[in-house]
Amino acid sequence: MNQRANGRRGRVHVLVVEDEQTIVELLRIGLTYEGYHVAVARDGRTGLELADKGDFDLLILDLMLPDLDGLKVCRRLRMRGNDIPIIMLTARKEIADRVAGLDMGADDYITKPFSFEELVARVRAVLRRRGNTGEPTVLRAAGLILDLETHEVRRGDEPIDLTPTEFALLELFMRHPRRVYTRDTLLNRVWGLDYEGDANVVDVHVSNLRRKIGDRERRLIRTVYGLGYSFRPEGEEKGGDEQTVE
Q1: Of 114, 170, 205, 244, which has fewest CB within 10 angstroms of its CB?
Q2: Which residues face 38 on adjacent strands?
Q3: What is the pLDDT of residues 148-184, one digit of tens each?
Q4: 1-27 pLDDT per residue, tens
Q5: CA 7 to chain centre
Q6: In whole angstroms, how far apart are CA 53 and each of 82, 114, 146?
Q7: CA-CA distance, 19 to 204, in Å (whole number)?
Q8: Are 193 and 144 in contact (CB under 8 A)?
Q9: What local confidence, expressed as pLDDT, does residue 240 receive?
């Protein structure tokens, strides 16, 4: 049993077992910012030893690892009765490889390259299924209601039809009001590290999102000139927390 997950409330502890430096840094910084405590192992054997101690609530496990691959790590944990939730990362797109991971006992998988927002959504979904998160499933701000379970957005009783990208942007903004996001950060977080298109795509999607949520005067999603965008809920007092830039 994963005794830490079953016996402790509070901050969620995530173990990332991955050997690619770029992905390690993306997950370490991004998940820490989302409020998770993150530890990293660079090879399968070290990851297995850490996960076996029962000190983590979630394991993000790469399939291709030095020393001991992700499938073997997953299989050995399950054979030992360790039920820690596992999300597998794989660059292999073949269905057989994905099925193999699930058959070994993984809870979910995500293929590389991926957007951080997709991965963190899967993290939350797995934790919710395991009943191991105190995070809200509904976000509310400025009359907007964003339901993470149903993927629905409303303003009052009126539904708002958003594309998946618009939903991801709004969720990011609503989770972190007053934070200023640069266009590059939004591209990495929502479109993914592998996106090679024009950064103007951010402006287009923000414009569409503003229109759909009725932000005609740009009072909710504000343009911070020379930097990017920031979500400012209505009625926020001027003496609130200082804005930060990411």
Answers
A1: 244
A2: 14
A3: 888 899 998 899 999 989 998 999 899 888 889 999 8
A4: 454 544 444 578 999 999 999 999 989
A5: 24
A6: 9, 29, 37
A7: 35
A8: no
A9: 42
- The rounded distance, in Å, linking the Cα atoms of 160 and 213 is 7
Question: Three-state DSSP class for 205?
Answer: helix
Question: Residue 223: CB partners within 8 Å, gap ≥ 6?
Answer: 229
Range picked from 38-47, 145-154, 186-195 for highest mean pLDDT: 38-47
Band the pLDDT of 238: cuts 50, 70, 90.
Answer: very low
Q: Look up residue 227 and give its two tokens.
A: 């930097």
d(CA 184, CA 202) in angstroms, rounded, equals: 9
Structure tokens at 143: 């009359």
The secondary structure of 122-159 as a DSSP string is: HHHHHHHHTT-----SEEEETTEEEETTTTEEEETTEE
By three-state DSSP, how is residue 83 classified?
Answer: coil
Residue with tokens 């400025």: 142
Q: Is the dihedral of CA 10, 232, 188, 139 positive or negative?
A: positive
Length of the chain equals 246
Task: Answer yes or no: are the C-beta atoms of 57 and 85 closer than 8 Å.
Answer: yes
Place of tokens 């629905």: 152
Mean pLDDT of 50-73: 90
Residue carrying the six token digits 């830039």: 245
How far, in Å, CA of 60 to CA of 58, rounded?
7
User: Around Cβ 136, how many Cβ atoms within 10 Å?
Assistant: 10
Exposed, middle or buried: residue 48 (CB in 10 Å: 0-12, 13-18, 19+)? Answer: buried
Token pair listed for 77: 């944990």
Tokens representing 63 are 């399939």
